Amino acid sequence: MESDHPPLPTVLCSVLSMKRQSCEVTLDPGRSLLSWRELRPRRGRDRSRPGGVTVPVAEIVSVGEAEIDEKYYNSMKWQHMCKPHAFTVRYVQRKRKHRWRCKEVTFWCSDEQLFYQWLQALHDILEQQTHRPKRLLVYINPYGGKKRGKQIYENKVAPLFSAAGICTDVIVTEYANHARDNLYEVNVEKYDGVVCVGGDGMFSEVLHGLIGRVQKDSDVDHNNPNAQLSRCNIRIGIIPAGSTDCVCYATIGINDPETSALHIILGDCQPLDVCSVHHKRTFLKYSVSLLGYGFYGDVLKYSEKNRWLGPARYDVSGFKTFLTHHCYEGSVSFQPAKWVLGSPRDQIICTSRCYICRQSSKQLEEQQKTQACGSEHRDQDDDWTTIKGKFMAINAVSMSCACPRSPKGLSPAAHLGDGSADLILVRKCSRLDFLRHLIRHTSNKDQFDFPFVEVYRVKNFQFTPKHFEDEDTESTDIGSIGKKNFPQICTDHPSCGCNHVNSIWNCDGETVDQTAIEMRVHCQLIKLFARGIENAKLEDDVNPSKVL
Ligand SMILES: Nc1ncnc2c1ncn2[C@@H]1O[C@H](COP(=O)(O)OP(=O)(O)OP(=O)(O)O)[C@@H](O)[C@H]1O
């Protein structure tokens, strides 16, 4: 009688040589682990402790025939090898602060047959990692950040892609929006991912190109603020080479090109919420990190005027904006995200394999199933909350927005893929109070714990500046009002600090001209080659390569 169970994969275990030491090397396909340990620990090592390394197959970067170093081979002849038969395994090694490095180890086999058996077994097991990309489209911004995009890609990323057997088509952009426009034309189907080498602006270009392309292909009108956008299944990789690299930092935990390249090679997948921003029935932009009016809008306005200062422009402009201390009047309406499990002040940080994001993912799947069966999913329209006032800042963040300058970010407990954004309202306050609020972003204290700060977890919101409410809203474009210096109405005396012109919206570091906007969160609209920020303690229990 035949058994119903598939045959158990056989464990391959051999004695191979590594750095002139005999090692017991084991490939356990059942547990997806490659491990090795020295049979006789080298002098100076603790002999009572069996040393060894275990690497999950999921973290092997590549396996290949070793490049033979003649000198080394000659010194190996004592092992009775008449021909060199060695293979090299490259794998991920975790360093401090979420930094990854590609480590390599070479094993020497006593005969050709054993060598091919190992090579075949390792190739077979890597073939099963079907989520890994084989072909990538790469866009390089040669002018982002310190203008080192090309150099970073060629020196740190391309050699790793090539070692991992990834084919690439590389486009060095020639003008702003080159990547975005190109994504409307290329045959994206033939790629497993799109990689951008640059900063947040470059990522935003690729994001707009890809989402726009998918909506075009599936006949979705992106000008309709209520349209159900089609999800993009092609993943985006970010090789950080910009000034801030906020999206990379918040999804991987570090701005490091080699770490990002390794996440791409391993085929990581992190779903990400995207917010659409509209003015009436006109699409303006997509945002994945910060949509900020008031303080962060003004910081961007000044920093754009001073691009020649390079990355330092953000500090200069932040300081200047703080000194000007403007507040803006208007009304904010929003619908709370009632179904999400977390709240902005619960201190539950979004980490890799985040439970809250996974729950949203399940809900999204169920919603899509219901829609596929013909039932309409309807949002409730009756739970709008409106807040009127004078604001120093209105920020909607769909991720923590952590970056090296602000390691906790604007909303430390915001989630990457829960389908919501944290709406932070900083009401008019003294300069000192505002400074206290800003300083809290760099400390462990709750930055929302002030009487002038409110935070809500929302699925959408609308903002109307004060003067816009007083005007004929159907015919007036707010951007042009600002430009014409239309007299502004402040309900207090002019000395109240309310600004006479509007601020602008800062949408992921790009300016938006219109001030009256509506924003909606699209749950897990795109996917990144990332895994969220690893919780070092948890990850240690689950897998990483470690000395046992
Ligand atoms: N070849 C190019 N010439 C001029 N501008 C370009 C080119 N390629 C891309 N851009 C534009 O440059 C802008 C800034 O690029 P990028 O985001 O890479 O760097 P950055 O602004 O220094 O970094 P960050 O956005 O992280 O602060 C983007 O908005 C992008 O559209």
UniProtKB/TrEMBL annotation:
Matches recorded under PROSITE patterns: DAGK
A matching Pfam family: CERK_C
Keyword Membrane in record: no
Domain of life: Eukaryota
Molecular function via GO: kinase activity
Gene3D superfamilies: 2.60.200.40, Probable inorganic polyphosphate/atp-NAD kinase, domain 1
Key words, A-Z: Kinase, Transferase
Signal peptide extent: none
InterPro entries found in the cross-reference section: ATP-NAD_kinase_N, CERK_C, CERK_PH, Diacylglycerol_kinase_cat_dom, Lipid_Phosphate_FormReg, NAD/diacylglycerol_kinase_sf
Domain DAGKc: 131-281
Name of the protein in question: Ceramide kinase
Originating organism: Xenopus tropicalis
